[in-house]
Amino acid sequence: MANTVLVGAQWGDEGKGKIIDLLTERADFVVRSQGGANAGHTVVVGEEEFILHLVPSGVLHPGKLCIIGNGVVLDPKVLLEEIDTLRGKGVHIDGNLFISETAHIVMPYHMLLDGLREKLKGKSAVGTTLRGISPAYMDKVGYTGIRAMDLIDEAVFREKVVNSLVEKNLMLTKLYDHEPLDADEIVREYSAYAARIAPHVANTEIMLNRAVAEGKEVLFEGAQGTLLDVDHGTYPFVTASSTTAGGACTGSGVGPTRIDVVMGVAKAYTTRVGGGPFPTEFAPEEDFVDRKQDREFGATTGRTRRCGWFDAVIVSHAVRVNGLNAIALTKLDVMDDCERIKICVGYDDGGRRLTDFPNDSRVLARVTPIYEEMDGWGEPTKDIRAVDELPANARVYVERLEQLMNTPVQIISVGMKRAETIFVGEPVD
């Protein structure tokens, strides 16, 4: 497998958790390099379901080393709750989970400000998960963040909390008419977290680069999706981190020349959560997705996902900005009963045909999708394990997506379980 970056090729929720879990079998290290507890990866092992927010999905495989990289903003309370839940299900977490000492910490004032800012925006709210992610990244780039190495040094931590609250309490009281926060309470709460987290904190940049030099295989686990990237997504309806392949390097300390494969994960249709433009969103009469049965609700927030036809314009954008050389196509089975299928191959912008993704979200909001249509296959695919056993029209659909994306589909998922997977050809190395 070599060193592989796995990223979402749409608006997140593409089913990356399962694909990461599959690829972990061939990896030595699994690295989470960006985002925070706003992400949710669902993995099914046997009859057991695991929902992971911060711990890399590789933890479900014995003998794999899991890294939470420097690009992650870490909520220690959520992390410890997740660790306790995993241990309660028999998952081993001792000596196999490490946290970058330079990862930034999500603080109580970050979560509070996240909610207050969204409320103040009213109808212009972005629709964040209210997990404090954006305010934590704002402090990081504003030179006032608190890192894991600070958290586990009580004197440094106290000093940084006190200094941060000078500004944060002014904002809370003067701008939002909210009660100020108490430094002693925060230090007391977070000191308890620090005692449990300290054994996991390490210089993971050195650890990973030594592993690469020794020929170990590293899997970089992306969170969210390309269209949520703070630079390359549907701004301002994005997340606060670099969700594209380049973020795996900056968020881990492993240089880009050490990356061998960049694989994108795309659903066989398109979904997104929250606000923002969505050209291919289903008309009510077209919507074939059973949100409950097909698990189309957020693993983190529980919000129902908006669904639509496959948009080759946005996935081609993801291929370009990530440098994708392979695709994992998920949830093909959800389309088994579709009589007619549409694929968006361009946009009509007042008579002007667009085939490239527009950076202006106002343009994306007003365009009309240009569709190709084809017949569905009307047969179940859940038990199929070889691509040549797929119904003829399902093969035609996959092949057409490959042509439009100019990227080979190497994995097809036809269900949530590990076994419900079709591997196409040899892996890219």
Please give a quick description of this structure.
The protein has helices spanning 16-24, 76-88, 108-121, 133-141, 148-151, 154-175, 183-197, 204-213, 245-250, 312-322, 361-366, 392-405; strands spanning 4-8, 29-32, 41-45, 48-52, 65-68, 73-74, 97-100, 104-105, 201-202, 218-221, 261-267, 270-272, 306-308, 310-311, 326-330, 340-349, 352-354, 368-375, 409-413, 421-423.
Tags for this entry?
429 residues; alpha/beta; Adenylosuccinate Synthetase, Chain A, domain 3; Adenylosuccinate Synthetase, subunit A, domain 2; 2 domains; ten-stranded mixed beta sheet; four-stranded mixed beta sheet; 12 helices; 20 strands; 20% strand; globular
Describe the structure.
- With 429 residues, the chain is an alpha/beta fold.
- The protein folds into 2 domains: 4-91 and 203-423, Adenylosuccinate Synthetase, Chain A, domain 3; 104-199, Orthogonal Bundle (Adenylosuccinate Synthetase, subunit A, domain 2).
- It contains 12 helices and 20 strands.
- It has helices at 16-24, 76-88, 108-121, 133-141, 148-151, 154-175, 183-197, 204-213, 245-250, 312-322, 361-366, 392-405; strands at residues 4-8, 29-32, 41-45, 48-52, 65-68, 73-74, 97-100, 104-105, 201-202, 218-221, 261-267, 270-272, 306-308, 310-311, 326-330, 340-349, 352-354, 368-375, 409-413, 421-423.
- The strands form 5 sheets. The protein has a 10-stranded mixed beta sheet with strand order 9-7-5-2-10-1-11-15-19-20, with helices on both faces.
- α3 (108-121) crosses α4 (133-141) and α6 (154-175) packs across α7 (183-197).
- The longest helix has 22 residues, at 154-175.
